Amino acid sequence: MGIVATQTGKFYDSYRREFGLHPTRSNRVAAWAAVGVAFLVVPLVASDYWLGNLSTIGVAALGALALNVLTGFTGQISIGTAAFAAVGAYTVGNLALRYELSPLLTLPAAALLTGAVALLVGLAALRIKGLYLAIATLAFQFVVEWLLFHWSEVTGGVQGVISVPRTQLGPLDLNDPLGKYLFIAGVLGLCVVFVENLFRTRIGRAFVAIRDQHVVAAGMGIPVFRYKLAAFFCSSALAGLSGGLYAYYVGLISSEQFGLDLSVRYLAMILIGGLASIPGSILGAAFVMLIPLFLRDGLPNLGIEFAPGTQVHVEQILFGVAVLCFLVLEPRGLHGLFNNVRDYFRNWPFSYKGER
Amino acid sequence: MKRTFPAMAVAMAVTLIAGACGDDGGESEAGGKSDKPTVLVGMIGARVGPVASAGVGVGDAIADWFKYVNANGGINGRQVELKEIESEYQVPKGIEAYNKLKTDGMAVALVAGTALSDALTGPSAADQIPIVFPGQGNASAVAGEKFPYAFPGAPTYPHQAAAAVKFVLDESTAAGKSKPRIVCLGWEPPPGQEYCAAVKAASEAAGATWVKQVTIPARAADVKPQILEAKAANPDFVFHSTLFSLAVAVMKTACAEGLGTKLVTWHWAVSENELNGAGAPCAEGLTGTAMGKLPATNPAPLQKLKDAAAKGGYQLSPSAGNNQLYANGLVAALLIHEALRNADAKVGDGKIKGSDVKAGFEQISNFTGDGILCPTTITAKDHGGNRAVNVYRIKGGAFTPVADCIAGPKLAGLEPDLG
């Protein structure tokens, strides 16, 4: 049996291991450590403010994960993620407000309905690729924005707001910061496991094959259009879930909250975090959400303070520079950077040139 | 270069942790002149982004006002700490800012922008922290029993539109034309759409001839097609609900097409910056509404600020001298001040909580803020404050008041029926 190199200094010693959800011991330890930190340590030590920030990061990370499934893993560019999130958010909002349904029903409904909408859009949009697909998803973004303003039966119209009623899910009070955090972390965790598993299956490998070389994939018998549609469905369903979580997190949704800038931020998150990387989706979301806090609350500790209006300009410059730096210097993003650092220490004092 | 990234990441983490371990500032005193605990006023600003022109004027006025208040002994001896966090008019940032200010002990928050006030209406009720957004926000938020911690406090978009329609209709009737034709150029985002919907409803209610609405995309760079479409409808008045650079584009294009003097607009469209951008000749004849008395008329609160700055040897914010929207900010500041004054009277030397400020707002009765506001009354049922606006017209390149405290017809369906 051949030994297959995985992380530096770590090797698979069986096919079973190679195809396991967490193939190495360090993977398993890291996964359980993440679960422990997220569900045991954070609830004990984090203030309501940080629980709120982590919840925001969780919602954004799910949106970034959704985009990564489509763009990072399947190679299809989309700038309509916010529109799919809007479909999910309004589905949850309406079902919770009008029918008082539990999140256990509203969130799956949001995912399924958003996925169904994606199938309709994808039937037309996925026949084109590259820049044209990006423009098609941009068009969908604008169509949804228009609908949010004008489909008043569902959205309440231009000034419509949908208040998500106070919700209790078992022991979790979704109006309480801790309840919201645990709920969001739980859903994100399930989605992470789902995506990890997805790319261990034939379907996930077909997505990657389409990304790497769709002509060869077709030659191998993969029905490219069908799998692209499946990727679009999965990605959009996750984006819909992200929108649904947002509705529960904020408690109120309105038509201005799902604009093009949100879609662009999701793109920035996966570029910075790492394309085709599940941890990268989370790291990218955390980076984008935490940079403003670093500039506002961190820098003054170093004796540097900006006026509120100036700070956001610095932040925008920093984002631009960060995206450029990652594209040029570390295209695998923060997750790639993390791997480099880990490999450096694992092999210390020997040098190691990581895979580029 | 690659190795500098981990170093930067570590530096960021260390400084964030250091920040998290620092004093939360909740009990700090701005001036330390009294034993009363300081009250923290949060400002979730929008000095950058799509509504920056309004965000700067409002933010500067509020900062200047509370600086003046503190320098003059605070509110009944209680110092006010004003903490501003910029949101760029982005909802996630606005929520983070709100949570940060809540952690710091904020008793009331000024929120800049409809998207943010919408998003924060729910959390503010859950946390019992009033949010204030004069002259903006969702018209339904005036229903105090439904949204107990949301305080528009001043004319919302339907109120502004209804008052402006009434003004031009009265003027037109006096000039012998009883049913003027009205077109509205609606900025695509919700506030712009709501304004035009209200112009339509008010036109129909007041007896003007409503012709059509033409939508201006949120990110439009050129508005000539929309202006030409409006011109083709042969209007007597062209209302518009744009602001910032789009307002300049509307003024310049309307001027070029001969519609300049027919333009009518809302609270947030035009400051001196937009006037300069379009050029005084192009802005000539434009009619607009304002929540407060124009800075050009030197209302008493502004004069107080100027006198205090001269006496104290400091400068007011730059926008105090060149931004008509500064007066809208003063309106917001004075409403908050009055609510805090009422809350202070209630708690005495104690700490002011959000629920005290809510009660303070709901005690405001016939308040004019030293003459800068139209008479404002806020009750537990009606958080609208007042429905009246001041009307100005650009004459000779200057903002010239033409009518004070005009209110239009109530618009069923666009504003809640509060009896």
User: Which fold name is given in CATH as the topology of the largest domain in chain A?
Assistant: ABC transporter involved in vitamin B12 uptake, BtuC
The rough form of chain B would be described as globular
Q: Mean pLDDT across all residues of chain A, rounded?
A: 87
What percent of residues of chain A are in strands?
A: under 5%
Give me the CATH architecture of the largest domain in chain B, please: 3-Layer(aba) Sandwich
Write the layout of secondary structure elements.
The complex is a heterodimer of chains A (356) and B (419).
Chain A (H helix, E strand, L loop, with lengths): L3 E2 L5 E2 L2 H4 L6 H21 L2 H26 L7 H19 L3 H23 L5 H20 L1 H4 L5 E3 L4 E2 L2 E2 L3 H22 L3 H11 L1 H6 L4 H27 L1 E3 L5 H14 L4 H21 L9 H22 L3 H15 L9
Antiparallel strand pairs in A: 1-2, 3-6, 4-5
Chain B lengths: L3 H18 L17 E7 L6 H20 L8 E7 L4 H13 L4 E4 L2 H14 L3 E2 L17 E2 L5 H18 L6 E7 L2 H17 L2 E8 L7 H9 L4 E4 L4 H12 L6 E3 L6 H7 L1 H4 L3 E4 L9 H13 L6 H4 L3 H22 L6 H8 L27 E7 L2 E9 L13
Parallel strand pairs in B: 1-2, 1-3, 3-4, 4-5, 6-7, 6-8, 8-9, 9-10
Antiparallel strand pairs in B: 10-11, 11-12
Task: Provide a short characterization of the protein structure.
The complex is a heterodimer of chains A (356) and B (419). Chain A is mainly α.
Structure description:
The complex is a heterodimer of chains A (356) and B (419). With 356 residues, chain A is mainly α. In chain A, 72% of the residues lie in helices and 4% in strands. In chain A, the strands form 3 sheets. A two-stranded antiparallel ribbon of chain A has the order 1-2. Chain A has a two-stranded antiparallel sheet with strand order 3-6. Chain A has a two-stranded antiparallel sheet with strand order 4-5. In chain A, helix 2 runs antiparallel to helix 8 and helix 5 runs antiparallel to helix 11. Chain A is globular. Chain B has 419 residues and is of the alpha/beta class. Chain B is built from 14 helices and 12 strands. In chain B, strands 7-6-8-9-10-11-12 form a 7-stranded mixed beta sheet, sandwiched between helices. Chain B has a 5-stranded parallel beta sheet with strand order 2-1-3-4-5, sandwiched between helices. The interface between A and B is large, with 46 and 50 residues.
